[in-house]
Amino acid sequence: MKMSKALILDNLNEIKKIDKSGMLSFCVNAAKHCKNAVHIAEKVAVNYPKPKSIIVAGMGGSAIGGELLKDWARDTLTIPVEVCREYMLPAHADKGTLTFVVSYSGETEETLSIFLDAIKRNCMVVCISSGGTLLDFADKMKIPSVHILTGIPPRVALPYLFIPMLTILAKLGLVKGVKTEISEAATVLKQVCSENVPEKPLKENFSKRLAADICGTVPVVYGFGFYSSVTQRFKQQFNENSKVPSKWEVFPELNHNEIVGWEKAGKLASHFSAIIIRDKNEPEHIKQRIEATKELLSGKVAGIHEVWSRGEGKLAKMLSTSIIGDFTSVYLAILRGVDPTPVKTISILKDRIAKTELKERIVSELQSLVKKGKRC
Ligand code: F6R
Hints:
Layout (H helix, E strand, L loop, with lengths): L4 H5 L2 H7 L4 H6 L1 H13 L10 E5 L6 H10 L7 E4 L12 E7 L5 H12 L3 E6 L2 H9 L4 E3 L10 H14 L6 H19 L9 H9 L3 E7 L3 H15 L4 E5 L20 E7 L5 H14 L5 E6 L5 H23 L7 H11 L3 H14 L5
Parallel strand pairs: 1-2, 1-3, 3-4, 4-5, 6-7, 6-8, 8-9
Helix pairs in contact: 4-8, 4-9, 5-8, 5-11, 6-15, 9-13, 10-13, 11-13
The structure holds fructose -6-phosphate.
């Protein structure tokens, strides 16, 4: 007989059986990881002058921290921040560009290619990684690097891939109030996590309920403003943890194309669930758009759900919503009987790509730069 959703999600043994590598324990300890990330980054000496632009280069779970940074800094930082998920940096990148090269494994082909490109262009490089080829060469070239803990999936390492960038920007005098924001975010995260731990039964656990409600549908996540990165993170977590397709869009842009897609979707729409990121202080014009969009979707999609941010500071608001995506995606995986940790398809693809000669060429170019005594 099939177990009910509440029975599955409230059964700690069942959770442990499916979440074999303990993905949930990382979610539960998110606040602690944020604080640890600050300590690690504080030890890194970065003696660069003020940059004229910032680029965060990375892929997948290593790139999303760059999106969070971009959203967080948008209203206060007066230099541009760009996220680069490519093999080469944009044409404007030069010695005035602070380039965070982020790869959890330190082995990602695209990121190594960017690393080489950044060095050739004399960018001010800072690496964030747990090791691999990236840290090997960064250390040889005396490039400032944040060495983060090994042995966890990149997406789980988000606090370590994101928070150090904030700490380093603060060290360079580019942003203010980082410590206060991180401290508030950690307090809020601790509270939100305690409300969503596996021990909290479904009826009192927002993430479990959300996972149960959207189970069997494609989650469509809508956000706005500085929640754009969070919206994207939800989608990625549904893909990698729950192993389901998902999509994300942001207001106001989604009002100019996305909504027409539901017009004649008919029965198809009932296979989707909408999740909308909300903020008690959201601007009136965004609130009106959200309410109007909810009316348009109502009765079409399987359900409309809202995730309200917590806290007062931007960082607390962003992380308190993002963590709900993490929990929900893991609970959804458990409901579907899939282990949230392995990402078999990414591994298969990476193995296939590893057979190309590009990475070898990058490594050999890096080696010759080291031989020539290339230093940061
Ligand atoms: C997330 C994940 C991927 C990787 C991406 C890049 O858990 O597995 O999205 O983050 O393939 O790899 P890294 O982060 O090692 O550079």
